[in-house]
Amino acid sequence: MTCLGDGWEETLLLQSSPPETSSKKLASCVPFMRSYAADLVNALKNDMAELLNQALTFPQQIHAKQLGVAVFFHSTASIRDYQDWFVDGFFTLFRQELNAWKDHDRYHFFSNPDMTRPISGAEEGLFSFLALNFVTGGGRLNPDVPPPGGKDASQQLASVIEVGGASSQIVSPVPSYPLQPPFIKQFSLAQETGLTQWPRLDVISVSFLQLGVASAGGLLLKNTCANPEFLSDGICSNPCYPQGFEQAQCSSGRASISRETGRVTVNDNPRESRLNTSAMFCSRYNSAISFKPLNEMSCRAYGLDPDLPLKERVAFPKCRMIVGTGDFQKCRAEVERVLLAPKLPIPGNMEASGVGFDNVEQLFRLVSSSSPVHFIGDALVNALNDLHDFGYFGTTPILNEKGEVQNNGATYQALRQAAEDYCKSSVDFIDGQGLVLRTPKDKNNNEKRRLDGFNITTCQDIALLYGFLTHMQSAEMKPEKFIFKTKFHDEKNPQHINNGMEYGWHLGAILYRVLKKDSWSKIAYESGVGFNLPAARRL
After folding, report:
1. Which residues does the entry assign to the active site, renumbered to this chain (predicted)?
2. Which domains, and CATH codes, for the chain?
3. 165 annotated among ligand-binding-site residues
C-alpha cells in the first residue's frame, strides 16, 4: 500500500501504534483507499447489473430496480488480523461508494455495516453449513419446510469441514446425547437463523486459523526441516514431497518448475511466503504476543522468534536444500505433530482457543456426531480425486459417482495404501514437460502428472485429510459417511436450478439474513432506495 511504504502488510497487522498514530495513518491512507474502493465498487456494480439482466426476467428486473439490490461484502481469514483502523476505514469507504446514488443500468445498490464487514471464522463456518444443508437438503432449511422425523435432529443435517487457503472451519450439528462439555460455545440453529422448526438443535462452529492448506503447508515445511530426524548436513529430507523432487532453496515460497530443464525455483520474497501470516502474527510489536505469553510460546515452538525481523522469521536455519523422500507414514506423523495435535496452539489460532480447542485432536475427542461429513474446499477434495483419477485405488475405488466414501475399515486401508503408493511414485524429467510423476495409469495410457507449484503438496494434503478422518473415527460417535464434492450436481435432474453452485459461505451469508423473514424485511426496507433516497430524488 503506497501510503504506508515498504512493509505495509506488517504495519497493518501489528497493534503497536498508539491511537493517535493510527488516526494519522488512516488519514494519510484515506485518499488511496477511497480511490481503490471507488474503482472496485464501480466494477462490481457493472458486473452485478450485467448478471441481473441475464438472470432475471423483465418483470423481475423492474421490481429489482424499484426496490434496490442488497449487497453483502465480507472478508475472511486473510484480513482478520489487520488493524482495526484499516479494516474499519476500508469497509466504511467501500460502503459509502456502494450506497452512492449512481445509476448502473437503472439498478441501485445498498448495504449497511452488518452486510459489509469482516466475518469471524465461526460465522464463516456457520454460513457454509447453512448453504450446504440448504442446497443439498432439497430446501430442508426453508422456514416453511418441517424437518423430517424419525431420527435425532442432528442426523438430518450434514457436518461440514471447509479447508481453505488460510483457515479450516469445522461445523457440526450437536447430538442430544452425549452432553457436550459446558465450556464449548454452541449456536442455537433456531435462534441464529429463525428456523423455528429446529427448536432443539444446536450447532458448533470452530475455525482454526493457519490450518488452511497454504498456511499449514508453510508451517509444516519449516518445522519438518527443523526436525533433526529430517535435517542432516543442510539437506532437508522431506517425507511429504515425492521421491526424486529436489529444491535447491529452503523456502516456503511457491515453487515453479521449468519445462525445459526441470529446475525448481522458489519465490523467496518474505511477502510471498506461505509462512507470511503466521510470521507477521509472531512479532514482538503485536499486542497479542506482548500481552499473552501462550502466544509467544506457540510462536517460538514453531520456530517463529518474535524478536527476529520478518525476513529471518520465515527463514529455514541450517537448511540449504530440500529433497523429497515420499514416505507417507512419516509425512502423516509430521502432520499430526505439527498441525493436528500439537502440544501448543498453532500461532494465531486464538479464535479456536477462545471457544475451548487448541487443536483438531481435542475437538474430535470432545465433540462427535454420526451425521454425514461433507468436505468442501478444492485442495483436499482435488487431492482425493487425483488418487482416484490416476488409478491409485486400482479396481476398487473408495469414491462412488456421488463423491461419497463409506466410513469403514476397508476405506481407511485403501486410502492409506493409495497414499503410500502416490507419495513414493518416482519423479522423472521429460524435455518440454518438466518434472512428471509416474502414475499407475502410465503403463497403459501414458498418463503422467506434470508437477507444478501446487500439486507437489498433494502427499501432505492427503496426510491432512487422513488425519481428519482418523480423528473422527476415534471419536465416541462416528460419521456414517464422508462426501467430497465442491459443487452441487443433481444427477437425476440436469436442469436443477442449483446445479453448478459451489458450496461455501457466500450463499450462506445471504441465507443467514433472509431466512429470518421479519428482521430481513425491516433491514431491507430501512436500507433500500425507497427509504434512504433523498426526497428530491423521489420526485
Report:
1. 124 (proton acceptor)
2. 8-118+513-538 (3.30.420.530)
3. yes
